[in-house]
């Protein structure tokens, strides 16, 4: 989503159309350059929804004010780049935009195509921990001991990766008979995976007594071999649930050839869970996570840790370590160069 700031309502309306045609989902028009300044601490808006902002300056825009507003913007929204559009940008405006770390400065004279190209370029360059991975092999496997583990840990990340063209597979090691009717839980897990755009694979290990023996390792290996993921996400071993720890250990063995492995946080994670990677989530990723968790209706009636406010607050809390309003935390176990890039013989 783009934010368009323009005092000229007619031009703004036209550009809303142009930018929408180029895959901007929705654009908001605000009339005053400084208006978001007043809104910025109001808390009644979720600023996390924007991917970038386009600011139109006119002849009346003061250069110092432009820098000041840009600085204030980036303090509040470090991950939302700003494209400044000026009538006839002179050196003063260029310096002001540079000082304020504008992502780009374009002249009004570049026309609609020029503006679209600038926005496109800025969105591509947007710093993003997941995009910097930029694998040619966009496949992720998420392993969880029970139905709902993957959704609680990385539901937002899965949704986000799928949105960005990844194929996601959720491997659930048990039908969760310890927490309810296995058939009902299986149907719920299917629905949850569908909400996130993931494919569900279910094993039938005994809920509460999953071990890390060769049988467990082999079951995970079969899926790893079939989908050849670039990245595997699994429970952390800093977890009080024995099933979670066993699945963690078995997965690390089964995924030994996978370039990237990281661990997610479960409600049973210990306080020693120590994430070092934070996946930025958009509002729609969090909404999808909540919808996927809601699909586990048999659980959300009885489990306090599935409370939506808690899930949202947790993502918001971890957001302080990332670039976004909401994030999901990961402990990176391995982030190696894919083997295909290694010289022959190694
Ligand atoms: Zn679990």
Q: What share of the residues lie within helices?
A: 40-55%
* Widest beta sheet: strand line-up: 8-7-6-9-10-12-11
- Mean pLDDT metric: 83
Give the CATH level 1 class of the largest domain. Alpha Beta
Q: What small molecules does the structure contain?
A: zinc ion
List unreliable stretches of 5+ residues: 38-46, 337-346
Query: Do you know the CATH topology of the largest domain?
Result: Rossmann fold
- Rg estimate, integer Å: 23 Å
Order of helices and strands: EHEHEHEHEHEHEHEHEHEEHHHE
Task: Spell out the CATH superfamily of the largest domain.
Answer: LmbE-like
Based on DSSP secondary structure assignment, what is the total number of beta strands?
12
Largest sheet: 7 strands, mixed
CA-CA gap between termini: 44 Å
* Beta fraction: 15-25%
Overall structural domain count: 2
CATH architecture of the largest domain: 3-Layer(aba) Sandwich
Query: Class by helix and strand content?
Result: alpha/beta
Number of helices, counting only DSSP H or I runs of 4 residues or more: 12
User: What is the general shape?
Assistant: elongated
């Amino acid at each position: 989503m783009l934010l368009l700031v323009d005092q000229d309502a007619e031009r703004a309306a036209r550009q809303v159309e142009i930018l929408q045609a180029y895959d901007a989902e929705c654009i908001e028009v605000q009339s005053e350059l400084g208006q978001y300044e007043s809104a910025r601490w109001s808390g009644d808006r979720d600023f996390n929804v924007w991917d970038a902002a386009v600011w139109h300056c006119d002849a009346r825009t003061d250069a110092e004010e432009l820098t000041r507003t840009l600085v204030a913007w980036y303090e509040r929204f470090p991950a939302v780049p700003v494209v400044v559009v000026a009538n006839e940008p002179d050196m003063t405006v260029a310096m002001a935009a540079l000082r304020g770390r504008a992502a780009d400065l374009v002249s009004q004279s570049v026309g609609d195509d020029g503006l679209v190209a600038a926005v496109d370029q800025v969105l591509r360059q947007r710093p993003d921990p997941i995009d910097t991975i930029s694998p040619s092999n966009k496949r992720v496997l998420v392993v969880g001991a029970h139905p709902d583990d993957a959704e609680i840990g990385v539901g937002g990340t899965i949704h986000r990766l799928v949105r960005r063209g990844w194929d996601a597979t959720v491997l659930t090691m048990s039908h969760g008979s310890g927490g309810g009717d296995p058939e009902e839980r299986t149907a719920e897990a299917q629905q949850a995976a569908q909400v996130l755009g993931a494919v569900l694979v279910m094993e039938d290990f005994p809920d509460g007594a999953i071990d890390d023996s060769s049988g467990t390792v082999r079951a995970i290996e079969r899926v790893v071999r079939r989908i050849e993921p670039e990245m595997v996400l699994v429970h952390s071993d800093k977890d009080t649930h024995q099933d979670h720890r066993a699945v963690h250990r078995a997965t690390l063995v089964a995924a030994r050839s996978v370039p990237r492995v990281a661990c997610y946080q479960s409600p049973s994670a210990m306080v020693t869970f120590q994430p070092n990677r934070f996946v930025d989530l958009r509002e729609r990723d969090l909404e999808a996570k909540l919808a996927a968790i809601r699909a586990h209706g048999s659980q959300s009636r009885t489990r306090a840790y599935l409370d939506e406010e808690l899930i949202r607050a947790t993502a918001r809390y971890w957001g302080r370590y990332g670039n976004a309003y909401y994030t999901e935390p990961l402990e990176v176990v391995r982030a190696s160069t894919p083997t295909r890039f290694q010289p022959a013989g190694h």
